[in-house]
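Re: weekly structure request thread

Next one in the queue (393 aa):
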Amino acid sequence: MTVFALAACLMTGCRLQEVPFTNVVIHISLPDEALPGGYDGYQVTLTNIATGRSQSDSTNAEGVTSIRVEEGVYKIEVSGVKTLETTVNVGSSQQTITQKVQISGLLEKALVIGETFEATIPLFVSLQSNGFVIKEIYYTGSTTPKSGSYYQDQYIEIYNNSDSVLYADGLTIVESTHLSSKDVPEFVDYPNDLIAGVLYTVPGDGTTYPVQPGKSIVIASLGINHTAVNANSPADLSKADFEWFDNGTDVDVPEVTNMIRAFCYSNTIWIMHVKGYHAYAIFKPEGSISDFVTQNTVNVMTASGSTVTRVKVPNSMILDGVDLGTAGTIGSKSLSSSIDVSYTYCDGSYIGKSVRRKVLKWENGRAILQDTNNSAKDFIPNATPIPWKVEEE
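Done, posted below.
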């Protein structure tokens, strides 16, 4: 409203239309291991998806907070750091271990209307990983100088976040069947599993491929120097540790070790969706990957009503996972909130950008990457791909 219109309105006695507000009441639900830390002091942040404005408050001793906001669609995040104690048996005695842990939860796309909106948000303890984590996923692809589409330079990088040597043998990358662009969650009949359409496994006998602390392996779609083929590509993958290879029309680079194609929905070649839209996870089967696939093959119905054959991966076996999407298109998640409470993204396809995990701290020259099981906090969206390198944000 202009100054003149406002003055006229005041002189004539007209009333300005009030913006409707809603009283939002949030309750938190804690897992058993977090109960000793109490319900108070968790920060609750409401972010209006349309305007980007945020409001925050803290929970009281009952785990409740009330925030008054304009009506709209909101992302509601809850986070807190608590000091918890764990008692373990050491020989004939007991030892108490004190640990600060991140505890968080998320409610996506909450429609906040009416006089009161009330919701309970379950929280999860996010422990710092001391094993393999996903460091970077470059899925968007790039354009060619003639404005063509180029996706052969995709890769996934997995990092040893521990202080000990780990072995990549048997490590399996998984792509979810569910698309994050869908509003309706699929596979609700499998609450304890990730339904996967892609599984590629590092070969080896158990100790063939050691990964030193603070080092990583890069798994490429095609292990070549893509910057020499496409001037716009950000990825030189000529020293890739592994590549996923599909028979038929796929190109095989003999110098790069092939992953085992354990399962793939594609009858030709597999590429990651250049808009994200999937979740990616890593796990190690207890036996051979072929036995695992045989024992965990299921027929499931998608949201469109079609029945497909896929592989279920128990959440309890997943070492790390990341939900992906394109900014503004997330409808529902693939991963359990105990694995990733939120998601990360890139702004578009063929933009030469990746999602990359943040550095938490450095110890004796080794980077320890941040892993709170919350990709919105742990990852840099729209990052510049830097395979094998660790850099601050």
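Residues 20-125 form a domain with the Immunoglobulin-like fold (CATH 2.60.40.10). The chain has a mean pLDDT of 90.
Next request, please.
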